[in-house]
Amino acid sequence: MQRFLTFHGMEVHPYLEASMLPSLATVDIEVEPEFQLSLHQRGEEEAQRFKWIESEKAGRDLGETAIRLWICRHWNSFLRQRWLEHLQGKAFWVELDHRDFGVLRTCFAGSRLIDPIIDHFKRGHENLDILLWAMQERLPMEEVRDILTTLDVNSARIQCQFDPSGQRYRSAAG
């Protein structure tokens, strides 16, 4: 499925430089870096670090409880930050849409709104928060809507898939 957006009355492929559109309008270009990362693997590593730190503080192995706590407290913000890295082209996460990799470097390079919108996402804000902010600031709503539609934060909501009840998370006592 190829996604397009309407930007100032023009239908634009969101993954190509504007200067490339006339000559490459019918070409489907996919860019995937050689080094690809896994959200679930990296999340599991972060959860293990959290477990170790919390266990050290408690003076005992907290095991599965600490892993579950990390998932509840930190998975969504961890995922949001990785999604932004993917959009910026800093890291390719295999669980995210490959067509979204680096979209901020290509589609919105000249937009004065993209940085403030990304800052809102970094602070954990959702589309509604951003729309309310944009209305309050009297920003061009069509451009804001086009950016939010292209970024599609809701498609990046992925459930944590590593199992905290697995044998390797259990404490020596349990």
What is this structure, in a nutshell?
The protein is mainly alpha-helical and 174 residues long.
Describe this structure in words.
- With 174 residues, the protein is mostly helical.
- The chain is built from seven helices and four strands, in the order E-E-H-E-H-H-E-H-H-H-H.
- The strands form two sheets. A two-stranded antiparallel ribbon has the order 1-2. A two-stranded parallel sheet has the order 3-4.
- Strand 1 and strand 2 (10-12) form a beta hairpin.
- Helix 2 (39-58) packs across helix 3 (63-88) and helix 6 (127-136) packs antiparallel against helix 7 (141-151).
- It is elongated.
- The chain starts with a strand and ends in a 23-residue tail after the last helix.
Task: Give the CA-CA distance, first to last residue.
Answer: 48 Å
Number of helices: 7
Helix/strand-derived category reads mainly alpha
Main sheet specs: 2 strands, antiparallel
Order of H and E elements = EEHEHHEHHHH
What proportion of the residues form beta strands (DSSP E)? 5-15%
Question: Radius of gyration from the CA trace?
Answer: 20 Å
What is the β-strand count?
4
Let me know the average pLDDT: 81
Low-confidence stretches: 1-30
Helix content bin = 40-55%
Shape, principal axes of CA atoms: elongated
Write the layout of secondary structure elements.
Blueprint: E1 5-7, E2 10-12, H1 21-24, E3 36-37, H2 39-58, H3 63-88, E4 92-93, H4 103-106, H5 114-122, H6 127-136, H7 141-151
Parallel strand pairs: 3-4
Antiparallel strand pairs: 1-2
